[in-house]
């Protein structure tokens, strides 16, 4: 599951857990982006990586990969999947996206090759419509999951405005945000 995770929140974790259960996955690898070229002004990748480590630590089936943050340049999923394929040549790969991310996939780099490297799972997300019609049916699935209307944007705005993010993000992530003074000085 790729994401900017700025910060990781319970919507991400529920999505990963639901997909793992539905597709009987051995593990879910969270891959924080290095340079998400469509998102300006993200927090340092090490902070986003460490929050992802903290958030996933209690689940033995959840892992975190550094492939995107250790690669220079803009982050493209085609590179993510090639790197993970190289590390795990025998794995059957699934790439998890929310409804909004899946809808933009036609604009992603080398989109036609993506289907060869992984099965894509689009999960439902409140406020976002999604359809998988027209995509390769054996390589793309749609999964309805419990609706959690949480976004990283909203979490950042809440911290900036002095509102709590308890129970929107895991406890360890609340503590990380506080200790490292993240999101206090947003301009918006
Ligand atoms: N509440 C949610 N339910 C389902 N999928 C989600 C949810 N939040 C995020 N996702 C999906 O998780 C992936 C990573 O999301 P990302 O890290 O960009 O979080 P975000 O909440 O969308 O962030 P931002 O608000 O900064 O755009 C994307 O595929 C996104 O669609
Ligand atoms: O490959 C691309 O061109 C591409 C364009 C936009 C997003 N992605 C990937 O989609 C995932 C979710 O991205 P985001 O920006 O919604 O956090 C993350 O793994 C990104 O690297 C990938």
From TrEMBL:
| Keyword vocabulary terms for this entry | ATP-binding, NAD, Nucleotide-binding, Nucleotidyltransferase, Pyridine nucleotide biosynthesis, Transferase
Q: Name one GO molecular function term.
A: nicotinate-nucleotide adenylyltransferase activity
GO BP: NAD+ biosynthetic process
Family annotation (CDD domains): NMNAT (cd02165)
Q: What is its EC number?
A: 2.7.7.18
Where are its TM segments located? none
Q: Which domain of life is it from?
A: Bacteria
Name of the top EC class for this enzyme: transferase
Listed pathway(s): Cofactor biosynthesis; NAD(+) biosynthesis; deamido-NAD(+) from nicotinate D-ribonucleotide: step 1/1
Catalysed reactions, semicolon-separated? nicotinate beta-D-ribonucleotide + ATP + H(+) = deamido-NAD(+) + diphosphate
The Cytidyltransferase-like domain, residue ranges: 1-158
Q: What does this protein do?
A: Catalyzes the reversible adenylation of nicotinate mononucleotide (NaMN) to nicotinic acid adenine dinucleotide (NaAD).
Protein family according to the UniProt entry: Belongs to the NadD family.
The record ties this protein, via HAMAP family, to: NaMN_adenylyltr (MF_00244)
What name is this protein filed under?
Probable nicotinate-nucleotide adenylyltransferase
The species is: Agrococcus baldri
Q: Which gene encodes it?
A: nadD
């Amino acid at each position: 599951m790729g994401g900017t995770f700025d910060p990781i929140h319970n919507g991400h974790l529920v999505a990963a857990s639901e997909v793992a259960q539905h597709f009987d996955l051995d593990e879910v690898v969270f891959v924080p982006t290095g340079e998400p070229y469509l998102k300006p002004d993200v927090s340092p990748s090490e902070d986003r990586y460490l929050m992802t480590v903290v958030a996933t630590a209690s689940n033995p089936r959840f892992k975190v990969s550094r492939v995107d943050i250790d690669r220079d340049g803009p982050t493209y999923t085609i590179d993510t999947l090639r790197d993970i394929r190289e590390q795990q040549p025998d794995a059957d790969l699934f790439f998890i996206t929310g409804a909004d991310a899946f809808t933009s996939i036609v604009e992603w780099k080398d989109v036609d090759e993506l289907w060869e490297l992984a099965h894509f799972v689009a999960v439902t997300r409140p406020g976002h419509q999604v359809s998988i019609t027209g995509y390769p049916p054996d390589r793309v699935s749609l999964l309805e999951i419990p609706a959690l209307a949480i976004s990283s944007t909203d979490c950042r705005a809440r911290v900036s405005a002095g509102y709590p993010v308890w129970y929107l993000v895991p406890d360890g992530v609340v503590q990380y945000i506080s200790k490292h003074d993240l999101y206090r000085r947003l301009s918006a």
